[in-house]
Fold this sequence. Notes:
alpha+beta, nine-stranded mixed beta sheet, 15 helices, 29% strand
Amino acid sequence: MSTLFLRTLREDPADAEVPSHKLMVRGGYVRRAAPGVYSWMPLGKIVLDNVAAVIREEMNRIGGQEMLLPTLLPSDYYEATGRWTEYGDALFRLKDRKGGDYALTPTHEELFTSLVKGEYSSYKDFPVILYQVQEKFRDEARPRAGVLRGREFHMKDSYSFDLDDEGLQHSYDLHRQAYVRIFGRLGLRFAVVSAQSGAMGGSLSEEFLAETPTGEDTFVRSTGSDYAANVEAVDTPAPPAASVEGRPQAQVHHTPDTPTIETLVGFFNAAGLGRTFTAADTLKNVLVKTRRPGDDDWEIVGVGVPGDREVDMKRLEAALHPADVALLDEADFEANPFLVKGYVGPNGLLANKLRYLVDPRVAPGTAWVTGADKPDHHVMDLVCGRDFVPDGTVEAADVREGDASPDGQGTLYTARGIEIGHIFQLGRKYTDAFELDALGADGKPKRVTMGSYGIGVSRVLAAVVEQSHDGKGIVWPREIAPADVHVVGTGKGDQIETALRIAEELEQRGVRVLVDDRKGVSPGVKFTDAELLGVPTGLIVGKGLSEGVLELRDRASGESEEIALDAAVDRVASAVAAG
Protein backbone atom coordinates (compact mmCIF):
# COMPACT_ATOMS: atom_id res chain seq x y z
CA MET A 1 0.00 0.00 0.00
CA SER A 2 3.00 2.29 0.25
CA THR A 3 2.88 2.72 -3.56
CA LEU A 4 -0.82 2.02 -4.15
CA PHE A 5 -2.74 4.93 -5.69
CA LEU A 6 -5.20 5.13 -2.78
CA ARG A 7 -6.46 7.66 -0.27
CA THR A 8 -9.14 6.68 2.19
CA LEU A 9 -11.51 9.22 3.75
CA ARG A 10 -12.79 9.44 7.30
CA GLU A 11 -15.94 11.44 6.48
CA ASP A 12 -18.84 10.57 4.17
CA PRO A 13 -19.05 12.62 0.98
CA ALA A 14 -21.63 15.39 1.28
CA ASP A 15 -23.76 14.15 -1.62
CA ALA A 16 -23.84 10.50 -0.54
CA GLU A 17 -27.15 9.07 0.68
CA VAL A 18 -26.78 5.27 0.53
CA PRO A 19 -24.12 3.07 2.15
CA SER A 20 -22.55 1.88 -1.11
CA HIS A 21 -21.95 5.45 -2.27
CA LYS A 22 -20.47 6.48 1.07
CA LEU A 23 -18.22 3.46 1.50
CA MET A 24 -16.99 3.14 -2.09
CA VAL A 25 -15.88 6.78 -2.02
CA ARG A 26 -14.43 6.62 1.49
CA GLY A 27 -12.59 3.41 0.63
CA GLY A 28 -11.04 4.96 -2.46
CA TYR A 29 -12.78 2.57 -4.84
CA VAL A 30 -14.33 5.35 -6.94
CA ARG A 31 -14.10 9.09 -7.37
CA ARG A 32 -16.75 11.38 -8.79
CA ALA A 33 -15.82 13.04 -12.10
CA ALA A 34 -19.22 14.63 -12.82
CA PRO A 35 -22.84 14.03 -11.79
CA GLY A 36 -23.49 10.34 -12.50
CA VAL A 37 -19.95 9.79 -13.84
CA TYR A 38 -17.26 8.04 -11.80
CA SER A 39 -13.58 7.15 -12.12
CA TRP A 40 -12.73 3.61 -11.03
CA MET A 41 -9.60 3.72 -8.89
CA PRO A 42 -7.14 0.76 -8.79
CA LEU A 43 -8.93 -1.26 -6.10
CA GLY A 44 -12.33 -0.43 -7.60
CA LYS A 45 -11.18 -1.58 -11.03
CA ILE A 46 -10.02 -4.89 -9.55
CA VAL A 47 -13.42 -5.52 -7.95
CA LEU A 48 -15.25 -4.45 -11.11
CA ASP A 49 -13.13 -6.86 -13.17
CA ASN A 50 -13.78 -9.64 -10.66
CA VAL A 51 -17.54 -9.19 -11.01
CA ALA A 52 -17.20 -9.21 -14.80
CA ALA A 53 -15.08 -12.38 -14.62
CA VAL A 54 -17.85 -14.26 -12.80
CA ILE A 55 -20.36 -13.07 -15.39
CA ARG A 56 -18.10 -14.11 -18.27
CA GLU A 57 -17.58 -17.59 -16.82
CA GLU A 58 -21.31 -18.22 -16.57
CA MET A 59 -22.05 -16.69 -19.98
CA ASN A 60 -19.41 -18.88 -21.61
CA ARG A 61 -20.87 -21.87 -19.77
CA ILE A 62 -24.18 -21.47 -21.65
CA GLY A 63 -22.43 -21.08 -24.99
CA GLY A 64 -22.20 -17.29 -25.17
CA GLN A 65 -19.58 -15.75 -27.44
CA GLU A 66 -18.07 -12.46 -26.31
CA MET A 67 -17.80 -9.50 -28.65
CA LEU A 68 -17.15 -5.79 -28.28
CA LEU A 69 -19.32 -3.31 -30.16
CA PRO A 70 -18.87 0.46 -30.49
CA THR A 71 -20.52 2.73 -27.95
CA LEU A 72 -20.93 5.46 -30.57
CA LEU A 73 -23.60 4.65 -33.16
CA PRO A 74 -25.30 6.62 -35.93
CA SER A 75 -29.01 7.29 -35.48
CA ASP A 76 -29.93 5.02 -38.41
CA TYR A 77 -29.92 1.90 -36.26
CA TYR A 78 -32.32 3.33 -33.69
CA GLU A 79 -34.50 4.99 -36.30
CA ALA A 80 -35.06 1.57 -37.89
CA THR A 81 -36.90 0.43 -34.75
CA GLY A 82 -38.38 3.78 -33.70
CA ARG A 83 -36.25 3.95 -30.58
CA TRP A 84 -34.44 7.10 -31.69
CA THR A 85 -37.70 8.84 -30.86
CA GLU A 86 -38.96 6.51 -28.11
CA TYR A 87 -35.92 6.97 -25.91
CA GLY A 88 -36.66 10.68 -25.62
CA ASP A 89 -34.38 12.69 -23.35
CA ALA A 90 -32.74 9.59 -21.85
CA LEU A 91 -30.62 9.08 -24.98
CA PHE A 92 -27.30 10.91 -25.21
CA ARG A 93 -27.33 12.48 -28.67
CA LEU A 94 -24.57 14.29 -30.53
CA LYS A 95 -23.68 15.44 -34.02
CA ASP A 96 -20.45 14.93 -35.90
CA ARG A 97 -18.77 17.75 -37.77
CA LYS A 98 -20.85 16.97 -40.86
CA GLY A 99 -24.13 17.26 -38.96
CA GLY A 100 -24.80 13.53 -38.72
CA ASP A 101 -26.81 12.31 -35.71
CA TYR A 102 -25.13 9.88 -33.32
CA ALA A 103 -25.91 8.37 -29.92
CA LEU A 104 -23.92 7.07 -26.99
CA THR A 105 -25.48 3.64 -26.72
CA PRO A 106 -27.72 2.56 -23.84
CA THR A 107 -28.16 -0.92 -25.39
CA HIS A 108 -27.31 -2.75 -28.62
CA GLU A 109 -30.27 -4.75 -29.91
CA GLU A 110 -30.22 -3.02 -33.28
CA LEU A 111 -26.53 -3.44 -34.05
CA PHE A 112 -26.40 -7.06 -32.92
CA THR A 113 -29.40 -7.84 -35.12
CA SER A 114 -27.77 -6.09 -38.07
CA LEU A 115 -24.52 -7.99 -37.53
CA VAL A 116 -26.24 -11.36 -37.38
CA LYS A 117 -28.14 -10.51 -40.56
CA GLY A 118 -24.85 -9.74 -42.27
CA GLU A 119 -23.12 -12.93 -41.16
CA TYR A 120 -25.77 -15.66 -40.91
CA SER A 121 -28.42 -16.76 -43.41
CA SER A 122 -29.09 -20.50 -42.91
CA TYR A 123 -31.06 -22.43 -40.32
CA LYS A 124 -27.81 -24.34 -39.70
CA ASP A 125 -26.28 -21.17 -38.21
CA PHE A 126 -28.76 -20.97 -35.36
CA PRO A 127 -29.17 -20.77 -32.40
CA VAL A 128 -26.49 -18.31 -31.34
CA ILE A 129 -25.84 -16.32 -28.13
CA LEU A 130 -23.64 -13.22 -28.34
CA TYR A 131 -22.63 -10.92 -25.51
CA GLN A 132 -20.38 -8.06 -24.48
CA VAL A 133 -19.25 -6.28 -21.31
CA GLN A 134 -18.80 -2.54 -21.82
CA GLU A 135 -19.78 0.98 -20.82
CA LYS A 136 -23.32 2.19 -21.52
CA PHE A 137 -24.82 5.64 -21.31
CA ARG A 138 -28.12 7.10 -20.17
CA ASP A 139 -28.87 10.79 -19.70
CA GLU A 140 -30.37 10.49 -16.23
CA ALA A 141 -32.38 13.50 -15.17
CA ARG A 142 -31.25 13.09 -11.54
CA PRO A 143 -28.12 10.95 -11.17
CA ARG A 144 -27.89 9.75 -7.59
CA ALA A 145 -26.73 7.01 -5.22
CA GLY A 146 -23.23 6.85 -6.64
CA VAL A 147 -22.81 4.17 -9.31
CA LEU A 148 -26.31 2.83 -8.68
CA ARG A 149 -27.94 5.51 -10.83
CA GLY A 150 -25.32 6.95 -13.13
CA ARG A 151 -25.07 8.42 -16.59
CA GLU A 152 -22.22 6.09 -17.52
CA PHE A 153 -22.37 2.51 -16.29
CA HIS A 154 -20.85 -0.89 -16.93
CA MET A 155 -23.14 -3.56 -18.29
CA LYS A 156 -23.17 -7.08 -19.66
CA ASP A 157 -25.69 -7.31 -22.47
CA SER A 158 -26.33 -10.54 -24.35
CA TYR A 159 -28.63 -11.47 -27.21
CA SER A 160 -30.03 -14.80 -28.34
CA PHE A 161 -31.16 -15.58 -31.87
CA ASP A 162 -33.37 -18.63 -32.47
CA LEU A 163 -35.45 -20.09 -35.26
CA ASP A 164 -38.68 -20.47 -33.29
CA ASP A 165 -40.43 -19.64 -30.03
CA GLU A 166 -39.41 -22.94 -28.44
CA GLY A 167 -35.79 -22.09 -29.11
CA LEU A 168 -36.28 -18.62 -27.65
CA GLN A 169 -37.76 -20.12 -24.50
CA HIS A 170 -34.74 -22.42 -24.18
CA SER A 171 -32.28 -19.51 -24.58
CA TYR A 172 -34.31 -17.48 -22.07
CA ASP A 173 -34.20 -20.36 -19.58
CA LEU A 174 -30.44 -20.75 -20.04
CA HIS A 175 -29.93 -17.09 -19.21
CA ARG A 176 -32.28 -17.24 -16.25
CA GLN A 177 -30.34 -20.18 -14.81
CA ALA A 178 -27.02 -18.44 -15.50
CA TYR A 179 -28.20 -15.32 -13.69
CA VAL A 180 -29.22 -17.35 -10.65
CA ARG A 181 -25.73 -18.88 -10.57
CA ILE A 182 -24.00 -15.51 -11.06
CA PHE A 183 -25.85 -13.73 -8.27
CA GLY A 184 -25.48 -16.77 -6.02
CA ARG A 185 -21.71 -16.77 -6.52
CA LEU A 186 -21.64 -13.08 -5.65
CA GLY A 187 -23.38 -13.79 -2.36
CA LEU A 188 -26.41 -11.67 -3.17
CA ARG A 189 -29.87 -12.09 -1.70
CA PHE A 190 -32.15 -11.54 -4.66
CA ALA A 191 -35.65 -12.04 -5.99
CA VAL A 192 -36.76 -12.82 -9.55
CA VAL A 193 -39.91 -10.85 -10.35
CA SER A 194 -42.22 -10.24 -13.28
CA ALA A 195 -41.54 -6.88 -14.92
CA GLN A 196 -42.57 -4.46 -17.63
CA SER A 197 -40.61 -4.57 -20.88
CA GLY A 198 -40.56 -0.79 -21.40
CA ALA A 199 -38.57 0.54 -24.34
CA MET A 200 -37.12 -2.91 -25.00
CA GLY A 201 -40.45 -4.34 -26.15
CA GLY A 202 -41.30 -8.03 -26.24
CA SER A 203 -43.81 -10.33 -24.64
CA LEU A 204 -42.14 -11.41 -21.39
CA SER A 205 -39.55 -9.99 -19.03
CA GLU A 206 -38.27 -10.62 -15.54
CA GLU A 207 -36.11 -8.53 -13.24
CA PHE A 208 -33.53 -9.70 -10.74
CA LEU A 209 -33.67 -7.46 -7.68
CA ALA A 210 -31.10 -7.40 -4.89
CA GLU A 211 -33.11 -7.09 -1.70
CA THR A 212 -32.21 -4.04 0.37
CA PRO A 213 -34.17 -1.30 2.17
CA THR A 214 -32.28 1.31 0.15
CA GLY A 215 -33.50 -0.11 -3.18
CA GLU A 216 -35.44 2.25 -5.45
CA ASP A 217 -37.65 -0.53 -6.85
CA THR A 218 -40.65 -1.78 -4.89
CA PHE A 219 -41.77 -5.32 -5.53
CA VAL A 220 -44.37 -7.63 -4.08
CA ARG A 221 -44.59 -11.26 -3.11
CA SER A 222 -47.54 -13.46 -2.29
CA THR A 223 -48.11 -15.10 1.07
CA GLY A 224 -49.68 -18.12 -0.64
CA SER A 225 -47.48 -18.82 -3.68
CA ASP A 226 -44.18 -18.01 -5.38
CA TYR A 227 -45.73 -15.05 -7.21
CA ALA A 228 -43.41 -12.03 -7.28
CA ALA A 229 -43.54 -8.88 -9.42
CA ASN A 230 -42.27 -5.35 -9.65
CA VAL A 231 -45.16 -3.10 -8.61
CA GLU A 232 -45.19 -1.66 -12.13
CA ALA A 233 -46.05 -5.13 -13.47
CA VAL A 234 -48.76 -6.11 -10.95
CA ASP A 235 -52.11 -6.83 -12.59
CA THR A 236 -55.10 -5.87 -10.48
CA PRO A 237 -57.70 -8.65 -10.15
CA ALA A 238 -60.93 -7.22 -11.60
CA PRO A 239 -64.33 -8.07 -10.14
CA PRO A 240 -66.75 -9.84 -12.49
CA ALA A 241 -69.11 -7.62 -14.45
CA ALA A 242 -72.41 -7.12 -12.62
CA SER A 243 -75.89 -6.55 -13.98
CA VAL A 244 -77.07 -2.94 -14.05
CA GLU A 245 -80.75 -3.91 -13.83
CA GLY A 246 -82.49 -2.69 -10.70
CA ARG A 247 -79.67 -0.39 -9.74
CA PRO A 248 -80.73 3.04 -8.36
CA GLN A 249 -80.59 5.88 -10.81
CA ALA A 250 -77.68 8.27 -10.56
CA GLN A 251 -78.47 11.37 -8.50
CA VAL A 252 -76.59 14.66 -8.34
CA HIS A 253 -76.16 16.11 -4.85
CA HIS A 254 -75.12 19.57 -3.76
CA THR A 255 -71.96 18.90 -1.78
CA PRO A 256 -70.44 22.21 -0.71
CA ASP A 257 -66.80 22.31 0.36
CA THR A 258 -66.02 18.69 -0.47
CA PRO A 259 -63.05 18.80 -2.85
CA THR A 260 -61.29 15.87 -1.14
CA ILE A 261 -62.25 12.24 -0.68
CA GLU A 262 -62.24 12.63 3.11
CA THR A 263 -64.63 15.59 3.09
CA LEU A 264 -66.85 13.91 0.50
CA VAL A 265 -67.24 10.71 2.55
CA GLY A 266 -67.96 12.74 5.66
CA PHE A 267 -70.67 14.72 3.84
CA PHE A 268 -72.52 11.67 2.51
CA ASN A 269 -72.35 9.83 5.82
CA ALA A 270 -73.95 12.87 7.50
CA ALA A 271 -76.61 13.29 4.79
CA GLY A 272 -79.04 10.70 6.23
CA LEU A 273 -79.16 8.56 3.07
CA GLY A 274 -79.52 5.30 4.97
CA ARG A 275 -76.13 4.04 3.81
CA THR A 276 -72.62 4.10 5.12
CA PHE A 277 -70.00 5.33 2.68
CA THR A 278 -66.26 4.71 2.66
CA ALA A 279 -63.48 6.06 0.47
CA ALA A 280 -63.65 2.80 -1.53
CA ASP A 281 -67.17 3.79 -2.68
CA THR A 282 -65.87 6.93 -4.35
CA LEU A 283 -64.24 7.34 -7.74
CA LYS A 284 -61.22 9.64 -7.75
CA ASN A 285 -60.39 11.18 -11.13
CA VAL A 286 -56.80 12.29 -11.55
CA LEU A 287 -55.89 14.40 -14.57
CA VAL A 288 -52.59 13.97 -16.37
CA LYS A 289 -51.23 14.96 -19.74
CA THR A 290 -49.28 12.69 -22.04
CA ARG A 291 -47.02 13.30 -25.00
CA ARG A 292 -45.64 10.65 -27.32
CA PRO A 293 -41.95 10.87 -28.20
CA GLY A 294 -41.45 13.17 -31.14
CA ASP A 295 -44.77 14.99 -30.67
CA ASP A 296 -45.04 18.61 -29.60
CA ASP A 297 -48.61 18.54 -28.31
CA TRP A 298 -49.84 17.15 -25.01
CA GLU A 299 -53.05 15.13 -24.63
CA ILE A 300 -55.14 15.35 -21.44
CA VAL A 301 -56.07 11.98 -19.99
CA GLY A 302 -58.38 11.24 -17.06
CA VAL A 303 -57.43 8.37 -14.74
CA GLY A 304 -60.14 6.96 -12.49
CA VAL A 305 -59.21 4.97 -9.38
CA PRO A 306 -61.17 3.98 -6.26
CA GLY A 307 -61.05 6.81 -3.75
CA ASP A 308 -59.18 4.76 -1.15
CA ARG A 309 -56.25 4.48 -3.58
CA GLU A 310 -53.61 6.89 -4.82
CA VAL A 311 -52.33 7.07 -8.35
CA ASP A 312 -48.81 5.60 -8.46
CA MET A 313 -47.05 7.70 -11.09
CA LYS A 314 -44.39 5.06 -11.74
CA ARG A 315 -47.09 2.48 -12.50
CA LEU A 316 -48.95 4.97 -14.66
CA GLU A 317 -45.81 5.92 -16.58
CA ALA A 318 -45.01 2.25 -17.16
CA ALA A 319 -48.55 1.60 -18.40
CA LEU A 320 -48.47 4.56 -20.81
CA HIS A 321 -44.89 4.04 -21.99
CA PRO A 322 -43.28 5.38 -24.14
CA ALA A 323 -45.32 8.56 -23.66
CA ASP A 324 -44.17 11.27 -21.26
CA VAL A 325 -46.60 11.76 -18.38
CA ALA A 326 -47.13 14.86 -16.21
CA LEU A 327 -49.80 16.17 -13.88
CA LEU A 328 -51.90 19.09 -15.12
CA ASP A 329 -50.85 22.54 -13.99
CA GLU A 330 -52.89 25.71 -13.46
CA ALA A 331 -52.47 26.79 -17.08
CA ASP A 332 -54.05 23.53 -18.23
CA PHE A 333 -57.10 24.06 -16.03
CA GLU A 334 -57.44 27.64 -17.23
CA ALA A 335 -57.31 26.50 -20.85
CA ASN A 336 -60.00 23.86 -20.18
CA PRO A 337 -62.68 25.48 -17.97
CA PHE A 338 -64.89 22.37 -18.09
CA LEU A 339 -62.33 20.71 -15.80
CA VAL A 340 -63.61 21.72 -12.36
CA LYS A 341 -60.82 21.02 -9.94
CA GLY A 342 -61.99 18.72 -7.14
CA TYR A 343 -65.27 17.90 -8.90
CA VAL A 344 -64.21 16.24 -12.17
CA GLY A 345 -66.40 13.34 -13.26
CA PRO A 346 -66.25 10.71 -16.03
CA ASN A 347 -68.96 12.25 -18.18
CA GLY A 348 -67.37 15.69 -18.34
CA LEU A 349 -64.20 14.09 -19.67
CA LEU A 350 -65.95 11.84 -22.15
CA ALA A 351 -68.27 14.60 -23.37
CA ASN A 352 -65.25 16.73 -24.21
CA LYS A 353 -63.63 13.81 -26.04
CA LEU A 354 -60.81 13.33 -23.56
CA ARG A 355 -59.46 9.85 -23.06
CA TYR A 356 -60.66 8.33 -19.82
CA LEU A 357 -58.98 5.24 -18.37
CA VAL A 358 -59.99 3.48 -15.18
CA ASP A 359 -58.61 1.03 -12.66
CA PRO A 360 -59.71 -2.59 -13.37
CA ARG A 361 -61.81 -2.47 -10.17
CA VAL A 362 -64.05 0.05 -11.93
CA ALA A 363 -65.78 -2.80 -13.70
CA PRO A 364 -69.12 -2.82 -15.54
CA GLY A 365 -71.98 -2.73 -13.05
CA THR A 366 -70.03 -1.10 -10.23
CA ALA A 367 -71.59 2.07 -8.75
CA TRP A 368 -69.66 5.10 -7.59
CA VAL A 369 -69.82 8.48 -5.92
CA THR A 370 -67.81 10.88 -8.06
CA GLY A 371 -67.60 14.41 -9.39
CA ALA A 372 -70.57 15.95 -11.25
CA ASP A 373 -68.41 18.36 -13.29
CA LYS A 374 -69.56 21.52 -11.55
CA PRO A 375 -68.43 23.20 -8.35
CA ASP A 376 -69.75 21.80 -5.06
CA HIS A 377 -71.62 18.91 -6.74
CA HIS A 378 -71.14 15.15 -6.82
CA VAL A 379 -73.16 12.34 -8.31
CA MET A 380 -74.14 9.21 -6.41
CA ASP A 381 -74.79 5.75 -7.89
CA LEU A 382 -73.05 6.49 -11.18
CA VAL A 383 -72.82 3.02 -12.71
CA CYS A 384 -69.99 1.98 -14.98
CA GLY A 385 -71.37 0.56 -18.22
CA ARG A 386 -74.73 2.27 -17.77
CA ASP A 387 -73.98 5.91 -17.03
CA PHE A 388 -70.46 6.08 -18.44
CA VAL A 389 -68.23 3.86 -20.53
CA PRO A 390 -64.49 4.40 -20.04
CA ASP A 391 -62.06 4.15 -22.95
CA GLY A 392 -60.17 1.34 -21.27
CA THR A 393 -58.42 0.21 -18.13
CA VAL A 394 -55.01 1.19 -16.82
CA GLU A 395 -52.79 -0.12 -14.03
CA ALA A 396 -52.22 3.11 -12.13
CA ALA A 397 -53.49 2.63 -8.56
CA ASP A 398 -50.96 2.02 -5.83
CA VAL A 399 -50.30 -1.57 -4.76
CA ARG A 400 -50.58 -2.19 -1.03
CA GLU A 401 -49.72 -4.89 1.45
CA GLY A 402 -52.72 -7.13 1.95
CA ASP A 403 -54.01 -6.77 -1.63
CA ALA A 404 -55.15 -10.00 -3.22
CA SER A 405 -52.41 -11.74 -5.18
CA PRO A 406 -53.09 -11.68 -8.94
CA ASP A 407 -52.70 -15.46 -9.09
CA GLY A 408 -55.58 -15.88 -6.62
CA GLN A 409 -53.36 -17.38 -3.91
CA GLY A 410 -52.73 -15.42 -0.75
CA THR A 411 -52.17 -11.70 -0.32
CA LEU A 412 -49.32 -9.40 -1.27
CA TYR A 413 -46.56 -8.00 0.88
CA THR A 414 -43.96 -5.50 -0.25
CA ALA A 415 -40.17 -5.29 -0.25
CA ARG A 416 -37.54 -3.08 -1.85
CA GLY A 417 -34.67 -3.95 -4.11
CA ILE A 418 -32.02 -2.79 -6.57
CA GLU A 419 -32.40 -3.95 -10.17
CA ILE A 420 -29.24 -5.91 -11.01
CA GLY A 421 -30.45 -7.86 -14.03
CA HIS A 422 -33.27 -7.93 -16.56
CA ILE A 423 -34.12 -10.57 -19.14
CA PHE A 424 -36.52 -10.15 -22.08
CA GLN A 425 -38.20 -12.31 -24.67
CA LEU A 426 -38.15 -9.76 -27.46
CA GLY A 427 -39.75 -11.94 -30.10
CA ARG A 428 -39.46 -10.44 -33.58
CA LYS A 429 -39.60 -6.69 -32.91
CA TYR A 430 -36.00 -6.16 -33.98
CA THR A 431 -35.68 -8.97 -36.50
CA ASP A 432 -38.77 -7.62 -38.26
CA ALA A 433 -37.21 -4.15 -38.40
CA PHE A 434 -34.03 -5.51 -39.97
CA GLU A 435 -35.72 -8.37 -41.87
CA LEU A 436 -33.48 -10.99 -40.28
CA ASP A 437 -34.45 -14.31 -41.88
CA ALA A 438 -32.83 -17.74 -42.02
CA LEU A 439 -33.33 -20.07 -44.95
CA GLY A 440 -35.06 -23.14 -43.54
CA ALA A 441 -34.45 -26.77 -44.39
CA ASP A 442 -37.43 -26.54 -46.76
CA GLY A 443 -35.77 -23.70 -48.63
CA LYS A 444 -38.22 -21.11 -47.30
CA PRO A 445 -37.16 -18.03 -45.30
CA LYS A 446 -37.99 -18.09 -41.59
CA ARG A 447 -38.04 -14.96 -39.44
CA VAL A 448 -35.59 -15.28 -36.53
CA THR A 449 -36.76 -14.59 -32.96
CA MET A 450 -34.72 -12.88 -30.31
CA GLY A 451 -34.01 -12.41 -26.60
CA SER A 452 -32.11 -9.70 -24.74
CA TYR A 453 -30.47 -10.08 -21.35
CA GLY A 454 -28.71 -7.45 -19.24
CA ILE A 455 -26.70 -7.31 -16.02
CA GLY A 456 -25.60 -4.01 -14.56
CA VAL A 457 -22.01 -4.86 -13.62
CA SER A 458 -21.34 -1.65 -11.68
CA ARG A 459 -24.82 -1.82 -10.09
CA VAL A 460 -24.13 -5.40 -8.98
CA LEU A 461 -20.95 -4.26 -7.26
CA ALA A 462 -22.80 -1.49 -5.42
CA ALA A 463 -25.62 -3.89 -4.53
CA VAL A 464 -23.10 -6.21 -2.90
CA VAL A 465 -21.91 -3.32 -0.74
CA GLU A 466 -25.50 -2.40 0.16
CA GLN A 467 -26.06 -5.93 1.45
CA SER A 468 -22.60 -6.58 2.85
CA HIS A 469 -21.28 -3.82 5.07
CA ASP A 470 -21.22 -2.81 8.71
CA GLY A 471 -20.46 0.31 10.71
CA LYS A 472 -16.75 -0.02 9.97
CA GLY A 473 -16.80 -0.48 6.22
CA ILE A 474 -17.34 -2.92 3.36
CA VAL A 475 -17.38 -6.70 3.82
CA TRP A 476 -16.51 -8.16 0.41
CA PRO A 477 -17.40 -11.71 -0.60
CA ARG A 478 -14.12 -13.45 -1.42
CA GLU A 479 -15.15 -14.11 -5.04
CA ILE A 480 -14.94 -10.43 -5.94
CA ALA A 481 -12.82 -8.87 -3.17
CA PRO A 482 -9.80 -6.81 -4.25
CA ALA A 483 -7.61 -9.36 -2.44
CA ASP A 484 -8.00 -12.57 -0.47
CA VAL A 485 -5.83 -11.39 2.40
CA HIS A 486 -4.94 -7.99 3.82
CA VAL A 487 -1.56 -8.33 5.54
CA VAL A 488 -0.95 -5.43 7.92
CA GLY A 489 2.55 -4.69 9.13
CA THR A 490 2.39 -2.41 12.14
CA GLY A 491 5.28 -0.49 13.64
CA LYS A 492 8.64 -0.36 11.96
CA GLY A 493 11.46 -2.59 10.79
CA ASP A 494 10.92 -6.29 11.34
CA GLN A 495 7.12 -6.11 11.38
CA ILE A 496 6.86 -4.51 7.92
CA GLU A 497 9.65 -6.67 6.48
CA THR A 498 7.96 -9.81 7.83
CA ALA A 499 4.63 -8.67 6.38
CA LEU A 500 6.25 -8.24 2.96
CA ARG A 501 7.92 -11.66 3.17
CA ILE A 502 4.67 -13.39 4.13
CA ALA A 503 2.82 -11.57 1.36
CA GLU A 504 5.36 -12.78 -1.20
CA GLU A 505 5.06 -16.38 0.02
CA LEU A 506 1.27 -16.22 -0.11
CA GLU A 507 1.34 -14.87 -3.66
CA GLN A 508 3.56 -17.78 -4.64
CA ARG A 509 0.77 -20.04 -3.32
CA GLY A 510 -1.76 -18.31 -5.59
CA VAL A 511 -3.28 -16.14 -2.85
CA ARG A 512 -4.19 -12.56 -3.81
CA VAL A 513 -2.59 -10.24 -1.26
CA LEU A 514 -2.91 -6.59 -0.29
CA VAL A 515 -0.08 -5.68 2.08
CA ASP A 516 0.00 -2.54 4.21
CA ASP A 517 3.72 -1.71 4.28
CA ARG A 518 3.28 2.01 4.93
CA LYS A 519 5.84 3.50 7.28
CA GLY A 520 5.02 6.30 9.65
CA VAL A 521 1.32 5.34 9.77
CA SER A 522 -0.11 4.37 13.15
CA PRO A 523 -1.52 0.88 13.75
CA GLY A 524 -4.91 2.42 14.49
CA VAL A 525 -5.09 4.07 11.09
CA LYS A 526 -4.00 0.86 9.39
CA PHE A 527 -6.64 -1.19 11.22
CA THR A 528 -9.34 1.37 10.37
CA ASP A 529 -8.35 1.29 6.70
CA ALA A 530 -8.37 -2.50 6.67
CA GLU A 531 -11.90 -2.60 8.04
CA LEU A 532 -13.05 0.08 5.59
CA LEU A 533 -11.55 -1.71 2.56
CA GLY A 534 -13.25 -4.96 3.55
CA VAL A 535 -10.84 -7.71 2.42
CA PRO A 536 -12.24 -11.03 3.78
CA THR A 537 -9.17 -12.16 5.73
CA GLY A 538 -6.73 -10.03 7.71
CA LEU A 539 -3.29 -10.98 9.01
CA ILE A 540 -1.77 -8.64 11.58
CA VAL A 541 2.00 -8.61 11.98
CA GLY A 542 2.27 -6.60 15.17
CA LYS A 543 3.73 -6.60 18.66
CA GLY A 544 3.36 -10.37 18.97
CA LEU A 545 6.02 -10.89 16.30
CA SER A 546 8.74 -10.80 18.95
CA GLU A 547 7.16 -13.91 20.46
CA GLY A 548 6.52 -15.56 17.07
CA VAL A 549 2.77 -14.83 17.14
CA LEU A 550 0.53 -13.16 14.53
CA GLU A 551 -3.19 -12.33 14.57
CA LEU A 552 -5.59 -13.81 11.99
CA ARG A 553 -8.87 -11.88 11.55
CA ASP A 554 -12.09 -12.68 9.74
CA ARG A 555 -13.66 -9.47 8.40
CA ALA A 556 -17.24 -10.78 8.23
CA SER A 557 -17.53 -12.28 11.70
CA GLY A 558 -15.02 -10.02 13.43
CA GLU A 559 -13.43 -13.07 15.06
CA SER A 560 -9.67 -13.24 15.52
CA GLU A 561 -7.12 -15.77 16.75
CA GLU A 562 -3.43 -15.90 17.41
CA ILE A 563 -1.37 -18.12 15.11
CA ALA A 564 2.29 -19.10 15.03
CA LEU A 565 4.55 -17.20 12.67
CA ASP A 566 6.05 -20.34 11.16
CA ALA A 567 2.55 -21.70 10.37
CA ALA A 568 1.06 -18.43 9.15
CA VAL A 569 1.35 -19.02 5.41
CA ASP A 570 -0.22 -22.48 5.65
CA ARG A 571 -3.00 -21.26 7.96
CA VAL A 572 -3.86 -18.27 5.76
CA ALA A 573 -3.77 -20.33 2.56
CA SER A 574 -6.09 -22.87 4.17
CA ALA A 575 -8.50 -20.14 5.30
CA VAL A 576 -8.61 -18.73 1.78
CA ALA A 577 -9.16 -22.14 0.22
CA ALA A 578 -12.03 -22.79 2.65
CA GLY A 579 -13.76 -19.64 1.41
